[in-house]
Every structure is written in structure tokens, then in C-alpha cells.
Amino acid sequence: MPGWLYNMINVCVSLMGYYMAAFFIDNKLYGRKWMQQIGFLMDFIFFVIPAFNFKYYTSPEHIHAFQAMYFLSSFFNQFGPNAVTFLVAAEVFPTPIRATAHGFAAAVGKLGALLAAILYNYIDTQTKFYVVPWFGLAGMVLTWLFLPDTTGLDLKEQERRWYFLRSGRESEYHGPAVHPKHLSLWERIRGAGKYYDPELDYKRKVDEMRGDWEALVARQAAEKELQFEEDDLDEGLKHAHVRSYFERTSPMLFANEKKLGVGVTVLPGNGGEGRPGNPTDDIISPARFSDEMLPPPKADLGSKLSD
Questions:
Q1: How far apart are CA 96 and CA 104, in angstroms?
Q2: Whole domain around residue 212: which residue ranges?
Q3: Do 140 and 7 have their domain in common?
């Protein structure tokens, strides 16, 4: 069989691995971290075996087994680190340095390729197989120990966590980015997962969205604009039921309406708190109270606020 045909087979096997990576990379049962770990491990295995049995696998009667291992190493290289490394570098770093960090990671990879190209000119073929496998093993161990798993994680949550970290308030973030399944082993050893609390995080997200909404209302009031511009709204605030909830419960609006002399309707069982209302709207029917005054169900708001 001519050499170019072996190269063609190797390319086709590599493409199969790459397209399988695209299919499984967002699968929560496999995802980015497992894909990279297993890819590094399989590359280590398929290179270390012939390294210590080089004469056996290069003999004519066993050369096909050698070729099969080489093709499989190409498959797991694509169905592993080659597909994951550039993606993870775009997800795990905070936004202000993300482009720089991604570029630095890519430059280190190119430096490794350059170093290998130079080194291989001074060593024989078997020695190359002695050298190469350990990089795969090191990659697997480093991935297992230090890489967080961003599979299924909203990058907005990752950014929220970075905001609290940069502010020196790591313990105040309780969202899904510190769920143990998204943390690296090193982060779990450090105890980052102990801050995970979905109930506290839900309340904090509502407070954050309320603050964003009130700031937008105040700015629009100062500019005498009464309409919400879609581009000005946070993703959660684009939903009418979320804005309606803040309109009904915002202390800022209560104070403004009182200053303007607009009637405030007191809600039954609400501790005397009120909402802006029509001056003649002194009575709220039970049906209207149950349908309009209660906060939206957690499942509705939570679909936009939680993982």
C-alpha cells in the first residue's frame, strides 16, 4: 500500500474523532473534562506500548498492530485535547483577560510544537516514542487536578463568580459555578464548593436584577424616557413578568409615588407595604391579588436565573 494512502486513512480517522468530539463535547455525562482526560490517557497508552516493544511492533508480522495504535492515537487526539484545549481556554478565564490568556495558551502550544520539531532532529525514532507518551500522561494528570468542568455551565455564571473573586468576596457567591461538578479537584480540596447554595443564590440574583432594573428606571426617568430599550435590558429583564414583578415590589417606586402624591395600594397580608396604584383603586379583589400581585413562580423566574 502506498504511503499516501496510509496518510489518507490517518486523516479520515482523525476527522472521525473530531466530529465525534463535536457531538459529545456538550454532553453532561461526558463533556469537556472527561474528553480531554481520556484523550490524553489514550494517547499515552498508544505511544508507551510501542516505545518499550519497538522491535516487536516494527517487525513485518506486527507492523499492522503498530499502525492501528497510531491511527487510534490520532483518533483520541482529536476526540480529546485537540478539540477541547482551545475551547476551554475561551471559557475558564475572566472576560477582561480572556483574549490575552487564550492567546498565551495558544502560544505555549505552538512553542511545544516548535520544540518537538527541533528536538526530533537529534534523536532516533525509538527515543521519540520514549519521550512523547509522558506528555500525554502529564496532560491527563494536570487536567484531572486543575481543570474546572464548564460543560453545561452558563458563562454568565462563570463571570459572576469571577466578579466576586476579584472583589475579594468569594464566600458571597453561591451559584452553580461553585457546584462540585463544575469545580476542579484542586478547587474542591480548597473548599470552594462549600459556598454552593441555590436558595441563597436565587435571592441574590433577584436582588441583582432588581438593582439593575431600578438603575435603568432611574436613568430613563432622568432622561424623560418612558419606554424600555431592548438592548438596555439584562437577559432576565427582557421578560415582561420579571419587570412586572419589580414594578409591583420595588421600594424605590413606592417612595417616588408617595413624593408625587400618587395613591399607593396596600396589599393584604404584606406587612403594610404597598404598590403604586390608581388613586381610586383602594380595593383589590382576591382573584386579582392571586393572579397579579404574587411574585412569579420560582420555576418561571428560576429558568432564567439558575442553572
A1: 14
A2: 199-250
A3: yes
